[in-house]
Amino acid sequence: MKYLFSEETVAVPQDVKVHIRSRIVSVEGPRGKLTKDLSHIAVTFSLPEKKDKDGKQLIKIEIHHGSRKNVATLRTVKSIIDNLITGVTRGYKYKMRYVYAHFPINVNIEKGDDGVQMVEIRNFLGEKLVRHVKMQEGVTVEPSKGVKDQIELTGNSLEGVSQSAADIQQICRVRNKDIRKFLDGLYVSERGNILDE
């Protein structure tokens, strides 16, 4: 079944500027600038003159003659733009805890040659192998203050922060052992925004 016309709207806060050109969305706010290329998704963007009841600028995302799957992409695009706006206004913070039973995990944070931060994990399950994880662009890592065995990943891009956390978690997967017994690793314990604290 084809849907003749479907639309979603995104409200943009006062202190945020959104620029859309040939489906490349740039969002600029107090914390910085983020860009996302949505040129592979067949949607139409428009900036109507009228604002919502709070005086916020609106962005309309429309699709004509779309199938059910095409209409589903509308909500995805809306969520992506909402995440970009949240990123440049409040930022994202993930907290990761080290879990170990016997061998204490050692984590060092260092800068790579290209200025991007790296996380170095040693003594995981007593192994001599040193694991290195490169952070995504714009993501910073630091040990938590006052909390033992915890690191905090912060950044403006939700994709960057969450992918960096996933990379750290996945490099510490336990292989060739019963994972119900060997629960060691680095796991995300808390997700939130930087400015909510």
Question: How would you describe this structure to a colleague?
Answer:
This protein is of the alpha+beta class. The chain folds into two domains: 3-89, Outer Surface Protein A, domain 3 (Alpha-Beta Complex); 92-196, Ribosomal protein L6 (Outer Surface Protein A, domain 3). The chain is built from two helices and 13 strands. The protein has helices at residues 68-89, 158-171, and strands at 3-12, 17-21, 24-29, 32-37, 44-46, 57-66, 92-99, 106-111, 117-122, 131-134, 140-143, 150-155, 185-192. It has a four-stranded antiparallel beta sheet with strand order 11-12-7-13, covered by helices on one side. The longest helix has 22 residues, at 68-89. It is elongated, with a radius of gyration of 21 Å. Residues 12-91, 103-185 form the Large ribosomal subunit protein uL6 alpha-beta domain. This is 60S ribosomal protein L9B. Belongs to the universal ribosomal protein uL6 family.
What key phrases describe this protein's structure?
2 domains; 13 strands; 2 helices; 197 residues; alpha+beta; Outer Surface Protein A, domain 3; elongated; three-stranded antiparallel β-sheet
Architecture blueprint of SSEs:
Layout: E1 3-12, E2 17-21, E3 24-29, E4 32-37, E5 44-46, E6 57-66, H1 68-89, E7 92-99, E8 106-111, E9 117-122, E10 131-134, E11 140-143, E12 150-155, H2 158-171, E13 185-192
Antiparallel strand pairs: 1-6, 2-3, 3-4, 5-6, 7-12, 7-13, 8-9, 9-10, 11-12
Q: In percent, how helical is the residue content?
A: 10-25%
User: CATH superfamily name of the largest domain?
Assistant: Ribosomal protein L6
Shape summary:
elongated
> Low-confidence segments, ≥5 residues, pLDDT <50?
none
Protein name: 60S ribosomal protein L9B
Family: Belongs to the universal ribosomal protein uL6 family.
GO cellular component, one term: cytosolic large ribosomal subunit
Organism: Lithohypha guttulata
